[in-house]
Write a sequence for this structure.
């Protein structure tokens, strides 16, 4: 009797084939992440703080993933060197004045390196070249700024609520102006008096125009105004 049945041998063969397939798939994925199957070139940049960046993080240029972080090394107490592996196919678009900055995929997503676009007339980067960096904005700093903004908004809201309470209760100048009917009536009376005064002034001016002693004065003014308008019309036609 055989030690292993045909059914067992089939299972063993399937298991071995499946293991080999998984190994090849893992190798392909890792190779793709490390750009082992694509021609690449290397860039280097320095940061004071890499803000959680890790080896293997993606590199973006113009919103497209073009490489991965190859190595992160502490140079000294204030400098961290980041080595970048970038696809050779995009080298023709990356200029010497491009900058490397650290961002994230979304608000709390994985860290990425973003290469900014350079000047139109700038020369292209070379393999192994150093490019300038731009320090990332820390998430903690953003959250602290938002916290301060929220606190200020809360203070302003409380002050506005207090003002509205005073206005509604008739306190303060604005509150009295809105709530006190006597002040409102006085304002209406003042407006009516101004209208009556204006009407009386118009009547006095018309009476003065009819006065034979002042008719010559008003006629001269009308003639001067008509002459001025005529000259302006002539200038407009010449233009």
């Amino acid at each position: 009797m055989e030690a292993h049945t045909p059914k067992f041998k089939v299972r063993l063969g399937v298991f071995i084939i499946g293991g080999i397939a998984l190994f090849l798939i893992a190798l392909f994925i890792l190779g793709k992440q490390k750009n082992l199957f694509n021609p690449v070139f290397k860039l280097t940049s320095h940061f004071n703080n890499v803000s959680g960046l890790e080896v293997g993080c993606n590199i973006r240029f113009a919103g497209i993933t073009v490489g991965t972080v190859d190595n992160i090394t502490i140079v000294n107490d204030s400098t961290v060197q980041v080595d970048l592996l970038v696809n050779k196919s995009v080298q023709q678009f990356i200029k010497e004045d491009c900058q490397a900055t650290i961002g994230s995929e979304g608000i709390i997503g994985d860290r990425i390196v973003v290469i900014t676009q350079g000047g139109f007339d700038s020369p292209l980067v070379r393999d192994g070249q150093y490019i300038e960096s731009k320090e990332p904005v820390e998430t903690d700093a953003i959250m602290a700024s938002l916290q301060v903004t929220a606190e200020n908004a809360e203070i302003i809201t409380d002050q506005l609520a207090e003002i509205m309470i005073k206005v509604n209760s008739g306190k303060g100048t604005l509150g009295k102006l809105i709530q006190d009917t006597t002040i409102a009536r006085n304002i209406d009376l003042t407006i009516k008096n101004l209208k009556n005064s204006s009407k009386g002034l118009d009547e006095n001016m018309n009476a003065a125009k009819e006065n034979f002693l002042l008719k010559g004065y008003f006629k001269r003014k009308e003639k001067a105004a008509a002459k001025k308008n005529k000259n302006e019309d002539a200038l407009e036609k010449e233009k």
Observations:
- The longest strand covers residues 64-76.
- The first helix runs from residue 6 to 33.
- The helical segments are 6-33, 139-168, 172-179, 181-210, 215-238.
- The chain has a mean pLDDT of 77.
